[in-house]
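fyi for ur records
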Amino acid sequence: MTHRLTVDQARRIAVRAQLLDAQRPGDVVEVAEQIGEIKIDPTATIAPCEQTVLWTRIGWSYESGQLRKAVEDDRLLFEFAGTFRPVSMLPLLLPEMRRWPQRESSRRWLDANARFRDDVIARLRAEGPLPAAQIPDTAAVSRPPDGWSGSNQVPHMLEFLMRQGVVAIAGRDGRHRLWDLADRVYPQDLPEIDEDEAAHLRHERRLQAAGIAKQRSPWTPVGEAGEPATIEGSTRRYRVDPEAVAALDDDAGGRVAFLNPYDGMLFDRPRLREIFGFDYVLEQFKPKPQRRYGFFAHPILVGDRFVGMLDAHVDRQREVLRVDAVHEFTPFEPEEHEMVRAEIHELGDWLGVAVASDDD
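which gave:
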C-alpha cells in the first residue's frame, strides 16, 4: 500500500514525530525515546543544544538537572558520539560497535597503538571515571591534526574505544566528559540482536523520529522501514510511519517552537526544503557581512510552518535575554506576533532572566 499524502499532511506528520505539536511530552526519557538522539553542542547564545532541544519540547516544566539525572543517576540515557540516546537504542548499536572500525587507516592506528590502548583501559579500570586530561598519552603513533583536536592522542583513543563499546562516558564535570569502562556504565542484561535485525530496527527508530523520510536519504536513511508514500506535487519516493498516518485525524493542533540550529528537526535539509518550503542555512560559520539572520539564529516554527528566525542571546553581564531581531519570512498576523512574543517571554522565564530588545 502506498500512502498518498498532501503537503500539509506530510508536514503535520513530521512535526508530531518530533514532538513539536501542542501535545507536549512529559519528561526527558519520553523525548529521547521518540526522537532517538539529543544533539550535544556547547554553543550557547541562548543555551546549549541539548538543553534547548528538551525545553522546546517539554516546555516550562523542564529543568536542566533532569537531563543529568536521567543520564548519570537513573542510567536511562547514555552519551554516545555527541548525542544523548535512550538505553533502548544500545542493543541496536552493539553489532556495529563489534565490527568497528571499518576504515583501514583507523585499524592500522589501533594496531600500532595496542600498548597505548591497554594503558588507557588499565588506567580507567584502576581509577575511572576520569577526564581525558588525567590519562597519560603513551601513543606510539599519532594521528594527523584534524583541525578540531590537538596533538594529545588520548581523546582519539577514547573515542575509538567508545565506538567499539569498550569504554563509555559515565557523566560530565561541567562540559568535560568523564570516561570509564563500558561494563561499569552500560546495563549488563541487554538483549542480543543480530546485525541485520539491528540495522532494520535502527531504520524503524529513525523513521519513528522523522515521521516521513526518503528511503535512501543520506541524512535520514530509513531503508525498508514503514510503508511507501508519495507527497502531492513531488515525484520523490518516501517512507512513512504507518502509526503516524493513522494518527493524522487525532490532531492536537500546533504551537510556537524555537529550534536550536542543531535540532534534529533541521538535520535533513532537502526534506525541509521539499516539505516545508524552508531553505535553511546555518550562518554560524559565515563571515559577519554575509549573515542575513544572525550568528546563531533559531528557526521559528508556528504550527507546521517555519515563519521566521529568532536572533537572540543571553547577555550574561546584564542577566537578560536580548532579542536582537525577529525576522519574519512574511509579515506576521497579529495572532502570530502575540504567540511568538509570549514564547520569547516563556524562554526568558525558563532561563531565569528578563527579556530585552535593542529598543530597550
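The mean pLDDT is 94. thats all i got for now
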